[in-house]
Amino acid sequence: MNADLQSSNTTLSGGDHADIKKETILERLNKRNKERQNFLDVKLEQRNKENVQLEGADYFAQTFAERVRAIEEQLQQTTEVAAAAKMPGPITPNTDLTRIFADITLQIQELQRYLTTSTMFLADFKIKACQNVLNELGASCEESRLRLIPKKKFGFSGKKVAPKVLVNPRVVNVASDKVDMPEKSKDDRAAFIWTLANRENEYICLEGEELNGKDITISNLKHCFVELRGHAGSVQISHATDCTFLCGPIARSLFAEYCERTTLALACQQLRLHSSNACRIYLHVTCRAIIEDCTQIEVSDYNYDYATIEADFKLAGLDRSQNNYTDIADFNWLSPDVPSPNWMLLKDAPTPIWSELIKQKQQKAIPL
After folding, report:
1. Which is the most buried residue in 108, 180, 245, 350, by most CB within 10 A?
2. Which has more confidence, 30 or 88?
3. Are residues 345 and 255 in the same domain?
4. Is residue 20 assigned to a domain?
5. 167 — alpha (psi -120 to 50), left (phi > 0) or beta?
């Protein structure tokens, strides 16, 4: 009797072990099946994403090429319009050509915006190639415009006007401080109304009608503090050393090159920074910013402020809520998986108080 009971217990125990083993095997199979299904889902998602990117890249390439061809055809037509102008008849060639070139310039700007908004699914080499095409189109448009549209003839009086004497010659009011352009550039004065060049140790401020909607060019500044308090059309900076630029909202683009140890606070649609080193940028940009041949670039959020800045944002057409300052494309760094070593985001650096720095610069500029 005892032997039969012991045998029965042994049998039941063996059955329990078999059930536990069976459950363990089923659990492992279910786990392996889930892992395999998750792996397949991830692969499918990646494949779908790659297909979408490929389709987007293919569509972009086709659309971009078509628009480039259309612009090139219009540039060729300008020569025909200029030739027709030499024939007798009631034609106003300058007006027609001016309108055509204005339309071409607008199309190039729209194509630039299309490229900028498509950079999220384009390889860096493709972005650079398309940007080179746009640069060539812009140069061809400007060359044709200067060649085909006759220069206006200006009349000058023989009376010479003595230059205004500033009460404080180190605090510059640009309204009374126009720069004499080189002889070869005098025909292009109308293109850039306010130009700063060859300055050192100065505080300079442009504001109001001196700045709003204008194209600003700045070159060869050292140890200068520049405020652009308003909504400029575009800004170009070349060769700036140990300078600070505080820029209100810029309607289109800021292009800077050969900047050394320079700080920029700027809000714009597009930013291009070339051949610059050890620069700090407080940035608001609605498209993807681009750097090339640059090192030691530090980037943080835009923090310049003044009384009318909100109105200037609206007048410049910039979206205050859209800021892509964390997304910088480095044309010298083509690896998509490794961050570029040429730029970094500022995280723990103290925020400069621009109002105090402006007062200090103004005081230093006042002669004792």
Report:
1. 245
2. 30
3. yes
4. no
5. alpha
